[in-house]
Every structure is written in C-alpha cells, then in structure tokens.
Specification:
Belongs to the TTI2 family. Helices cover 66% and strands 0% of the residues. By secondary structure, the protein is mostly helical. It has a domain of 178 residues. The longest helix is centred in the N-terminal third of the chain and has 23 residues. The chain is elongated and about 110 Å long.
Length: 509
C-alpha cells in the first residue's frame, strides 16, 4: 500500500509545487498560497483548468486531515487568522475556475452557448470542495480546538454556499450532472457544520450558540448587487432571492437594512421577470418582519409607493404578485377600513379605486382573471367602507358577469363572490340596485344554462352562486325579488333556470 505522505509529495511535484517528490511536505498555509497562484493561472485555460482542479480534489481526498487542518491553540489567534485567510483565498480562486461569464448590459441575457463550458467546470469544482469538506469532517471529530475549527468553517462556508446555490438551480449554466454535484456539495456543507437544513445553516439557532452564515453570505453577495453591477451576472439575483426566502422571523429583522435595498432594486427593474423576483422578495420581507420594524424610518411607506406604481403595468403576472403583497403591506400601514375606528378614506381606498377603474376598461383575459381573483379579498377587507366605491363595484360586476370566461369561468365566479360580500356588508345601499342586478343575474342563468362550452361542474357552480346572490338581494330588499320573479315569463327559460327560479322563490332568509 502506497505511503500517503509520498503520494502527496508526488502530487505536489506534478503540480509543480515542489522541486522533488522526496521533499518534505510544506506548511499548509504556504502550500495554499502556492496552490492559489496555480489555480489563477489555470482559470482561462480549459484543459489546464480541468487537470489542476482534478489534482486539487485528489490532494484533498488523500491528504492527512491533521496536515490540511493543523492543530492550533485557541489563544493563537494570529495563526488561526492566517489559516482562515489562506483557505478563504484558495476556495474563492477555486470557485473562480467555474465563474459565470459577464453580461455587458442589462438589456438582454446571455444565450446558452455562452455557458457551454460552465457545467463541466462546476462539476469538477464541486467535487474538489466536497472532498475538502469530507477531510474537514474527518479531521474535526477527534479535535479539541473546536472553537478554531468552527471559526474556520464559518469563514469558508459563505462562498461555498453561494457557489452550490448558483449551480443547483435549473438554469442555462447547469446540467443534470452539475446540479447533482452542487446538491451534494450543499448537503456536505450542511452536514459537516451540524446544521439541519439550508435555513438553519443561514440563520443558526437563536436558543443556542449555533451561528448562521447569513452575515458572511451577504458580505460576499451584496457587493455584486449594486445598481451598476447586479445585472452583469445572471445568477446573482436568483441566488439572492433564494437565500432571502430561506430566512424567516426573527432573524430577518436585524438584516433588514441589508436585504431591503437589493429587493427594491429588483422590484424597480423594467423587465417583468426581474420585477416579479423583486416583488416576491419584498412580500417575503413584509411577511417575516415585525410591523414596528417596517414602520421604522418610514420603510413601509417606501415599499407601498414602490409597489403601488406597478398597478399601472399591463403584465398580469406582476399585477397578481403586487396585489397579494399590497394586501399584507396595507395592514402594516393602517388599520382595516372595516374597523369601527377607521372611517376616513385611506390607502386601501386608493388601491381599490385604481383596481376598479382598471377593471372597467380591461379587455385582456389574463388581466381580467387576475383582477377578479384579487377583488373578493379587497372587498372583504374594506367591509362597510366598500360603500364609498359602490358605483364602481356595480359597474364592474355588471360588466364582468356579461362576458364569458371559459372553460373555468374564473372571472364570473370571483365576481359573484364580490357581489355576495358587497351585499352582506352594504345591504342598506343595495335596495336601489336590485332591479339592475337581478336582471344581470337572471341573464347569467339563462346564458350559462344554454352554453355548451361550460362544463357540468362549472355550470352548476355558476348556477349555485347566482342563486345565492339572488337570495341575498331578496333579503336586503325585504322580499321584493320574489315579487319580481313572479312576473318572469317561464317560457323564455331553460329547465335549469326555472329550477333556480323556484328555489329562489321558496327560499326564506
């Protein structure tokens, strides 16, 4: 069996890091400095890059862990600083061997051909780093200087974390094999640090002395997320968003000043995909930050203004995310209009007014569905204060119930919910609108019963919801609807419509 020491010496000789295979092994910090220079020289040479990274992996696999991570007393801080610096530098250089190409502008993304060589390089680097973590795990078990070793791991973990997250995502710069290698690297990092999962890795444990690496990750990531540089690397925004979504209460709040600016930067971008990513980040921050912290320094108002302007866009996917986020953010800025202490017009009114205005003239099916799906929650939040918008609500209800939306009839079903909730909270104001609303609902029953493009379950749901709306109208008008239904000419109706009519006549609220 070959002597590991001789094997390492021979490997160092092949790497041109020693003059002879018989030379004694150098100090690890000296070797890491030489190895870094070797890796820097191989970055732009594909053939040499693959060979050198493979030899580095072999070095980490076969070397004695006690040599890779020499014993240093906890009070010898200078030596620990030197060792941490050496490993951080060589790992950063190793990761640079699989660095993504830079995009020169923010107008377009690089095509897949630009990433052609990245997956194989990333796979090799992942294997080398996984081997290093394996040696660290093996060498740390019997060590007494746990504090120093933990400090070393916390130093090298952030760049390894960011590299693994970059390459395990399904993107043009990754393949199935490179994603698998990146996932193995990520799992190895979580395992050697004794963390439970990615969230624990980032946040640590507030009840113990376990430290997370979120601060270190942001130290590496944020310099790449400035206004002038974030668009140069396609992966940076995705890694930031993925990382942010792992961080929850109560850890997120102290990092808010560092997490909010990049989120707003993405939110403000003109490209819908970047904008959606930013809105998602902002929504996660809103959900996981105490209201007092968001109101501090007027942050919540800044977020509101940044989101409100998106209500003027014509991108359905953006509008959907924005309306959902605003619904949660508004509760931080003010009390719900339905509360007894809130009677003056407020931001809720501003959002609902703009949404209803856009709904009246919107003709795109996708946007109509998004608006219709969001409206019931806003009407419910408004409560009796929806009376301030009854004319607009009425026009929207009438307009949307008249237009088919096959095959699921999402818009009509959602608008029927809006009508029912409006009747329940604003019933004293509905009596004068009974005639026009009843006429619209009966016309809907006739249309649906004769429309062959509507499936059976959907047709039944529409009939049921329409009937429920008619019964509510009857209740708020003190039986006037039943009197009007007696005047209905049953010869003009289908069997299903007549059944709905009889049900409404015989139903007492």
């Amino acid at each position: 069996m070959a002597d590991p020491g001789m094997e390492i010496s021979s490997l160092l000789h092949k790497l041109h890091l020693s003059s002879s295979p018989s030379d004694p092994l150098p100090a690890i910090t000296e070797l890491l400095s030489q190895l870094q220079k070797k890796l820097i020289g191989a970055v732009h040479n594909s053939c040499e890059n693959s060979s050198v990274v493979g030899q580095v992996e072999h070095l980490f696999q076969t070397a004695d862990p006690d040599w890779l991570f020499p014993s240093v007393l906890d009070d010898q801080e200078n030596e620990w600083v030197e060792l941490r610096s050496a490993y951080k530098s060589v790992i950063s250089t190793l990761i640079g061997c699989a660095a993504l190409p830079i995009c020169e502008d923010d107008c377009s993304s690089l095509d897949s051909a630009a990433y052609q060589s990245i997956p194989s390089r990333a796979t090799a680097v992942c294997s080398a780093l996984t081997a290093l973590l394996g040696s660290w795990d093996e060498g740390c078990r019997a060590r007494r200087d746990k504090t120093g070793m933990t400090g070393l791991l916390l130093t090298v973990a952030p760049p390894i974390f960011l590299f693994s997250v970059t390459h395990f995502q399904d993107q043009p710069w990754s393949t199935a094999s490179s994603r698998t290698a990146a996932r193995h690297l990520h799992e190895a990092l979580v395992r050697v640090g004794g963390w439970r999962d990615s969230a624990h890795l980032l946040m640590g444990d507030e009840y113990t002395e376990d430290r997370g690496i979120l601060g270190g990750v942001l130290d590496v990531l944020l310099p790449q997320l400035t206004k002038d540089s974030w668009h140069r690397c396609e992966a940076v925004k995705l890694v930031f968003a993925w990382t942010l979504l792992q961080v929850t209460r109560p850890v997120l709040s102290p990092f808010l000043p560092r997490l909010l600016p990049p989120s707003l930067l993405l939110n403000d971008h003109y490209r819908p995909d970047n904008c959606m990513l930013g809105v998602g980040c902002v929504h996660h921050i809103v959900l996981n930050t105490p209201a007092a912290d968001l109101r501090h320094f007027n942050r919540a108002e800044v977020l509101y203004q940044a989101l409100f302007k998106h209500l003027y866009t014509s991108e359905a996917a953006v509008i959907q995310l924005v309306l959902s986020c605003l619904l949660d953010l508004l509760l931080i800025l003010e009390k719900p209009p339905s509360s007894a202490s809130h009677r003056k017009p407020c931001r809720h009114d501003d959002v609902l007014r703009l949404v209803l205005t856009h709904m009246e003239v919107e003709h795109k099916v996708a946007l109509r569905r998004v608006y219709a799906s969001a409206l019931p929650l806003y009407v419910e939040r408004m409560g009796v204060a929806v009376c301030r918008h009854l004319r607009r609500v009425e026009r929207v209800v009438l307009g949307y119930l008249e237009v088919r939306d096959p095959p699921e009839e999402t818009s009509r079903l959602m608008i029927l919910q809006v009508l029912q909730r409006t009747i329940k909270v604003a019933w004293p104001r509905m009596a004068c609108r009974v005639d026009v609303l009843l006429r619209c609902l009966l016309r809907l029953l006739v249309d649906v019963s004769s429309d062959s493009s509507v499936g059976g379950p959907v047709r039944q749901e529409l009939m049921d919801q329409s009937s429920a709306s008619i019964r509510l109208l009857d209740a708020c008008s003190e039986g006037r609807v039943q009197r009007l239904l007696l005047q209905l000419d049953s010869r003009c109706c289908s069997t299903q419509t007549r059944q709905a009519e009889h049900l409404n006549r015989g139903h007492h609220i």
